[in-house]
Amino acid sequence: QVQLAESGGGSVQTGGSLRLTCEASGDTTLCMAWFRQAPGSEREAVAALDTARGRTLYADSVKGRFAISRDNAKNTLYLQMNGLEPEDTAMYYCAAKIWDCGRSLPRDNEPDYWGPGTQVTVSS
After folding, report:
1. With contact defined as beta carbons under 8 Å apart, do 5 and 64 qualify?
2. DSSP letters of 6-17?
3. pLDDT by residue (tens digit) across 66-104?
4. How far, in Å, CA of 74 to CA of 17, rounded?
5. What is the DSSP string of 63-85?
6. 3-state SS assignment for residue 53
7. What pLDDT is attached to residue 96?
8. CA triplet 71, 45, 105: central angle to 5 degrees?
9. Tens of pLDDT, residues 26-44
10. For residue 122, what pLDDT band results from cuts at 50, 70 and 90?
11. Residue 30, SS3?
């Protein structure tokens, strides 16, 4: 079993930055990811990290602005978000998949564990 807990969400203006944190406990997983879901939209992965190889994957919409990383000693996952735009407004979820990420971002039905989410709101 894996427990995930996100923090760090909040409200910022366009161009601002936030860092999301996901504290993980329990079993080791090979793929960790950040998803987001805006009102009326499907949940989508924005970044993923292959914990064994250190390989990262990003959605085109956030590439160059967001950075996913992990502190192995603390078993904590981060999402540094810079240059935030109103389109980034969403509930952000930390997710973990037992097996590796593969070559593409995980789909919504792939993670085995989910955190409860943290809200990010970007105003213009």
Report:
1. no
2. EE--EEEETT--
3. 999 999 899 999 999 999 999 999 999 999 999 888 899
4. 23
5. TTTEEEEEETTTTEEEEEE-S--
6. coil
7. 96
8. 85
9. 888 889 999 999 999 999 9
10. very high
11. coil
Q: How far is CA 38 from the centre of its chain?
A: 14
Model confidence at 49, pLDDT cuts 50, 70, 90, reads very high
C-alpha to C-alpha distance for 74 and 88, rounded to whole angstroms? 27
Q: Residue 67: which residues within 8 A CB-CB, separation 6 or more?
A: 47, 56, 79, 80, 82
The SS3 of residue 56 is strand
Structure-token pair, residue 44: 């989508």
**Residue tagged 């601002």 (tokens):** 16
Beta-strand pair 10-13/31-37 = unpaired
Q: Is 116 helix (H, G, I), strand (E, B) or coil?
A: coil
| pLDDT tens for each residue of 103-113 | 999 999 999 99
